[in-house]
Amino acid sequence: MFNFHVYIRLIIVACIFMCNFLFAHGVKHDRVHQLSHQISKSPNNPQLYIKRGRVYQDSEEYVLAMQDYQQALKLDNNFHEALYWQGYIYSVQGQLELAEKQLLNYLKQQPDSPAGHRTLAKVYEQKNQLNLSIRHFDQAIDVDKKTPPQVYLERTRVQLKIKPLPIVQIEQGLNQAIKNFGAIVTIIELMVESYQHAQQWHKISDAIALLPKSLQQSPQWLYKKAFAYQMMNHNRQAKQTFIQVQQQIERLPEHRKNNPAFQQLWRQTNSQLKQLHE
Questions:
Q1: Which residue ranges does UniProt annotate as crossing the membrane (predicted)?
Q2: Domain for residue 75, yes or no?
Q3: pLDDT values of the chain reduced to their tens digit, one per residue, 278 residues
Q4: 61 and which of 56, 95, 103, 259 could share a cystine (Cβ 3.0–4.6 Å)?
Q5: Which domain holds residue 255?
Q6: Number of structural domains, the chain?
């Protein structure tokens, strides 16, 4: 049956999307027009080409962006900002050798650039040169007193690919992130994942204990704790905690309880309890 109200809502959403798209496109067009006008008056100013290149880049018009960055380098072959953005675009496009070359050239001029080291670290990760990747993540963190937590997480994800697992370095890095930013959920998730990879099950409960108590009692975190108990053969604690998982799911509002993720968690919990009763 035709639902008029749903139809109207869909039209409103579509109109808002189109208006936002047209507004963004208009802003970009105006900005390009302004910068092109400035370039016509000051054609030897490399900074103007960088600014226009960034506008093109933000719109994923990489060919036009690269042309502007190249023009900036023609005007000043030591214009380090152009080297960085060329390297960045090459990395986005998967041209890893060119990305590495430009970013290394950039870092020769700007050795204390956090962005340069971070972007190069990601290039080396894609090239599967993991130790080099970690080295540049380390440098990105060392040179920036305001390193965002995401950089610590990115470095840890690279470390998790290394065999044997450098769990001591991972633990030190994540503890530093916790010291700087507190027990952010994404940090604790990665810490627990690292302990799982290292099979250091005894440390998982302590990591979870860093979270606010309300989160510790959520079904997802209780399940992680219960599974760690099970892997350590602490079966009594595992059973009790798996039962808590189900109790917490039962307390959820009906619409959340029927969420596929919680339904899956319920089935997994049942499966683990069956194993423990065998």
A1: 6-24
A2: no
A3: 445 454 455 555 444 444 444 444 456 778 888 999 999 999 999 999 999 999 999 999 999 999 999 999 999 988 999 999 999 999 999 999 999 999 999 999 999 999 999 999 999 999 999 999 999 999 999 999 999 999 999 999 999 999 999 999 999 999 999 999 999 999 999 999 999 999 999 999 999 999 999 999 999 999 999 999 999 999 999 999 999 999 999 999 999 999 999 999 999 999 999 999 87
A4: 56
A5: 217-278
A6: 1
User: Tokens for 229?
Assistant: 């108990």
